[in-house]
Structures are given as C-alpha cells and as structure tokens.
Amino acid sequence: MQIINTKIPGVLILEPQVFKDPRGWFMESWSAAKFHAAGIEYNFVQDNHSYSAMKGVLRGIHFQNGSAAQAKLVRVTRGAVLDVAVDLRKGSPTYKQWVSARLTSENKRQLLIPRGFGHGFVTLTDDVEFLYKTDNPYNAKADRSIRWNDPELAINWGIDQPIISDKDAIAPSLRDSDCDFIWD
Questions:
Q1: Which residues are catalytic?
Q2: DSSP category for residue 45
C-alpha cells in the first residue's frame, strides 16, 4: 500500500497493491495489521454502500456531531467520483480548508478522512457504487450537513447544477450550523 499525504494532515490517499493476472485482479482494501504497521489506527465498525444512477449527483457535505463523529475510509467500486474532505475543527491550522481526490474503480484509490471533517462527493460518471467504512455507527440524532456550495468554503466541485437530495438542498452554511468539532 502506498500512502499519499494531502495538504491537510491526517487526510490520506491510499493506493492499495493490486495483483493482476489473466483472470483479473486481487487487492486488500483493509488490513488492520498493515494499517497498524503504517501508523494508521482505526477500529472500523460499520460498512456502507451507496449507488448513484447518474453523473452529477452530489452527496454532502455530511458529518455527525459530538461523540458520534466518524472517521471514514471511502472508495469507489464502479464509476468515478470527486471526493471531498473539509476540515471543520475550529482552531485547526487548516480549518475550513478542503482536499479532493478523484476516486475511480480503475485507480482503486481510497481516501481516509479523520473525525472532525465534513465529507461529500460528486459523481463523474453514471452508475457509481461508493463504499465506505466508519469507526462509529450511524446516529440519526447527530447527523448533520453543510451546504455544498457554501461560499465560505469555496469548494470546486467542477459542477454548477448538481443533483442533490432535499436534505442537502436545505443544509445550512457552516456559519449557521451547530458543528461542534474542536481541534486539539
């Protein structure tokens, strides 16, 4: 596995080792022992799988507040997305900064997003399957969103008119949210 640091410490792009032969390929998407050896310590407790039928679907920016906060390890098994992590930790040297990574079924890259970050993605192709692990189970009471086009964050999604959910359409700006992440 190759670990690629991003401009925000802790947000990592992971390139798994892929073994190919005439029959196809094999890779480890998660190995607690190998991640531990690389200094990556997470106890993932839930796997999630989403499907987006068309190009231009934007999901996010999502997070869970308080003790329900989640770290995520995200990847694409069909299609392609632009995946975005936003630092929402007040007091952090990278507060309100974001990083993006192109994740595809071909490049098999994964993005590791620590707790304290908002997360979202926009589909770059039709028929996208998106998988992610979390280190805390889903908690509906702690579920939050930030407006995808918050001018204070100025995320370049590469799209002006995404297809979004009703929930994401009414998400507040970061300034108006009750996001409670503090950098320590």
A1: 62, 132
A2: -
CATH 2.60.120.10 fits 44-169, yes or no: yes
CA dist 92 to 47, 110, 126, 131, 182, Å? 28, 24, 36, 28, 8
Q: Residues 39, 98, 123, CA angle at the centre, nearest 5°?
A: 100
pLDDT mean across residues, the chain: 96
pTM of the full structure? 0.95
Q: Please give the pLDDT value at position 184.
A: 85
Pairing of strands 12-15, 128-134: unpaired
What is the token pair recorded at 27? 């890779």
User: What are the structural domain ranges in the chain?
Assistant: 44-169
Distance CA 67, CA 141 (A): 11
- The pLDDT tens digits for 60-89 are 999 999 999 999 999 999 999 999 999 999
- 3-state helix vs strand vs coil in the chain, percent to 5: 10, 40, 50
